[in-house]
């Protein structure tokens, strides 16, 4: 169903440093370390001194960073919600100021990385940096699409943002934030992705070599391996349904007429059973506090004590093991969870079902006599 999508985003960046990681990145890349030795000696009893030549080299760039999910569990969203977001944190543990390329994506992760089963995609997928540091995505405020000039030991909060489809059958969308370290040094401009120095070459004293030190395999299943200058963290959107696909089927059957035993007819004095099947077609989401109200039709009389609710029957039966409910509003003696009543003034039968589980059905019935 899903395709792994790589979305390289560009745009005007804003300085994105929010918080400080507890790490020591060491000497800054490009720092020149020089050393000169002094020598003393004596010639014909006269003390002399001289200096050695100066040995110098520059500190190389130890490229390293972390990407983590910066929230507890899945983001809870609703059907058709716009700008729903998952929050991540990128921490620069490189000994230099760096840019970071943000690449949000989503895929069907079926290898146990995240719990549950992915069954939908967000639309309009984007990544943005938290400008004001409030930890909440603010449209029109958080507009930077890459991390710009993140100092050593500093962190930036980033959001994966998208829109939830308008569908009642969706449940989970798995997402991930893929991050690549890039060159820093120019504000408001995204640097190119760093390229590691060939480690088979000897160290160049006057050149800043680039060594990837991200010793992880945080996304091995998707091709992210240790020491490649990339990182990834996972999150997702879980839909909290605000509606379900609930249907009610009502049928009528003549069960006795006082004349015909096998095939009763709708004669005056005949008893008719009204059967209801309440079905919740939305998986994993229950409908609660379900109330059925039915005004008995003209030319009929309600049969006292005939209301019953319970599991749906089989082989044409309305109920499998229904329980008879009281006709009044006093439910103190009820123990099965179902309650019901008949209002003689309004001629209304009311049947209360506390819960219809996702994908489940509940049956209900009552009788009337034809006048």
Q: Could you name the CATH class of the largest domain?
A: Mainly Beta
Number of strands: 24
Task: Supply the CATH architecture of the largest domain.
Answer: Sandwich
Low-confidence stretches are 1-23
Alpha carbon gap, first and last residue: 58 Å
Tell me the Rg in angstroms: 36 Å
Helix content: under 10%
Structural class: mainly beta
Number of domains: 2
- Percent strand equals 35-45%
* Overall average residue pLDDT: 87
Question: Explain this structure to me?
Answer:
The strands form seven sheets. Strands 16, 17, 19, 20, 21 and 24 form a six-stranded antiparallel beta sheet that branches. A five-stranded mixed beta sheet has the order 7-15-13-9-11, with no helix packed on it. Strand 22 and strand 23 form a beta hairpin. The chain has two domains: 185 residues, Immunoglobulin-like, CATH 2.60.40; 125 residues, Sandwich (Immunoglobulin-like), CATH 2.60.40. It is 0% helix and 42% strand. The chain contains no helices and 24 strands. It comes from Novosphingobium anseongense. Keywords: Signal. This is DUF11 domain-containing protein.
Task: Describe the structure concisely for a colleague.
The protein has 371 residues and is mostly beta strands.
